[in-house]
Amino acid sequence: VQLVESGGGLVQPGGSLRLACAVSGFTLSDVFMTWYRQAPGRESERVAQISTTSRTMYTDSVKGRFTISRDNGRNTLYLQMNSLKTEDTAMYYCHAPRYPNARGQGTQVIVSS
User: Fold this and answer.
1) What is the distance of C-alpha 31 from the center of its chain?
2) Are the C-beta atoms of residues 98 and 31 closer than 8 Å to each other?
3) pLDDT at residue 72 in the model
4) Cα gap 1→79, rounded to integer Å
5) What radius of gyration do the chain's Cα atoms show?
6) Which of 8, 22, 76, 96 could form a disulfide with 107, with the two C-beta atoms 3.0–4.6 Å apart?
7) In the structure, how many helices (H) and strands (E) does the chain have?
């Protein structure tokens, strides 16, 4: 099982980024998936999740701004992030709880003017 995140970068407040998580070793549509983030000095935080039936949930701080989705044909999970704030700065990771030991390298998001 492999998870490879990409799409992070430096963006100004109010800007947008789309993160991608390419998965291999399992079929994305069959697995509950999450995005979480880790900021320096702070606990990791699950920001979004998507079930096998495409039900989505978000932490309160990103509701209305972030959208989790997946492309089953590409076996890729996405996180569209709009109206970014400085407090969104963090390393972002995708995760499949079914495979707890599978960790990607993460992708860095920096929101700064």
Assistant:
1) 15
2) yes
3) 92
4) 20
5) 13
6) 8
7) 0, 10
3-state secondary structure of 7: coil
The DSSP bridge partners found for residue 53 are: none
Summarize pLDDT for 63-78 with one digit per residue, the tens.
999 999 999 999 999 9
Strand pairing partners for 94? 35
Q: What is the 3-state secondary structure (H, E, C) of 27-75?
A: CHHHCCEEEEEECCCCCCEEEEEECCCCCEEECHHHCCCEEEEEECCCC
State in Å, rounded, how far the first CA of the chain is from the last one.
37
Residue 13, C-beta contacts closer than 8 angstroms, at least 6 positions apart: 84, 85, 86, 111, 112, 113
Distance CA 31, CA 80 (A): 20
